[in-house]
Amino acid sequence: MQTRYDFGADEGRPIVYVRPVHVADLPEDMREQAMGSTTLYALHSAEGERLALVRDRRLAFVLARQNNMTPVTVH
Q1: Taking the CA atoms of the chain, what radius of gyration do you get in angstroms?
Q2: Are 69 and 15 in contact, with CB atoms under 8 Å apart?
Q3: In which domain of life is the source organism classified (predicted)?
Q4: Which terminus in the chain has less CB density within 10 A, N or C?
Q5: DSSP assignment, residue 24?
């Protein structure tokens, strides 16, 4: 099937991927800073670079939008 579809104008906003990270999987110095949390949320660029770690999913989405990025969930 070779039908073209117009997805609309490119908004120019980069996609950032949000995924849960188990604190136990982080380096020791980062685990100490987690202050009792068992899960944090990582924001990654399309190239896979970790941009930030935050305490909850909602904050991850807010942070992405405040920085003109489009957040999407990764399972």
Answers
A1: 16
A2: yes
A3: Bacteria
A4: N
A5: G
Q: Residue 43 forms beta bridges with which residues?
A: 18, 52
Residues 6+ apart with CB under 8 A from 15: 46, 69, 70, 71, 72
pTM of the entire predicted model: 0.79
Residues 6+ apart with CB under 8 A from 34: 23, 26, 40
Q: Which residues are CB-neighbours of 11 under 8 A, at least 6 positions away?
A: 70
pLDDT digits (tens, 9 = 90+) for 7-49: 555 568 899 999 999 999 999 988 888 888 999 999 999 999 9
Structure-block tokens of residue 75: 């399972």
